[in-house]
Amino acid sequence: MNYFDFYAIPESFNPDQAFLKKKFYELSKQYHPDFYANEDEAKQQEILELSTLNNKAYQTLSNPNKRLEYILRLHELVFEGAKPQLPADFLMEMMDINERLMEVDNAAELGHITAEVLAVESDIDEGLSALTNDYEQLDDTAKESRLNDIANIYYRQKYLLRIKESLNTFASRF
Q1: Is 102 helix (H, G, I), strand (E, B) or coil?
Q2: Ranges of H-type helices in 40-106
Q3: What is the 3-state secondary structure (H, E, C) of 2-35?
Q4: Which phi and psi (to 5°) does residue 60 adopt?
Q5: What is the DSSP string of 127-167?
Q6: For residue range 80-107, what is the model confidence (pLDDT) as tens digits?
């Protein structure tokens, strides 16, 4: 079941967190297995599944990164083994950073590269925020187009995460 449908809220990259928490606790009470201990096996299993669904829905929708990936998966824009076509300028910039990272020989150089990576990350985050802030107000055609742009940013974030992991590895040398 779609987590947004389960919580009876519209699909959103920025759902009301207070409402999510309230709904989670409400459904946790409603579907708590202890209240159904005297029911038959089928009913107990159904309640256990609903309780599990509630937990998974809350864990996903309350976490911005998980929520982003979840929405993109719902629209079949993200899947295992995907080989996204990232923009050439982004790939060239990442290749340049990687090459400089492989040749770094002191903490000061590493600091400059780290600052550059954090600036790229900040730009990506700002772009993502701009694309997701008014998503709920768009019509279906505009949402589809916007989701493709958001997926592009998602894959950039994933790529950048690998660069940041390399930075952490190199940081331990100094």
Answers
A1: helix
A2: 41-61, 64-74, 88-103
A3: CHHHHCCCCCCCCCCHHHHHHHHHHHHHHCCHHH
A4: -75, -50
A5: HHHHHHTTGGGS-HHHHHHHHHHHHHHHHHHHHHHHHHHHH
A6: 877 788 999 999 999 999 999 999 988 8
Distance CA 77, CA 93 (A): 24
Q: Torsions phi, psi of 3, nearest 5?
A: -60, -35
Q: Which residue, among 80, 100, 78, 71, has the nearest Cα to 13 in the 3D structure?
A: 71
Cα–Cα distance, 72 to 147 (Å, whole number):
7
Tokens of 40: 């038959």
- Judge whether 71 and 5 are in contact, CB under 8 Å: no
* Tokens read off for 34: 């202890």
What are the per-10-residue average pLDDT scores of the chain (174 residues)?
96 97 97 92 95 97 97 93 87 95 91 96 97 95 95 94 90 77
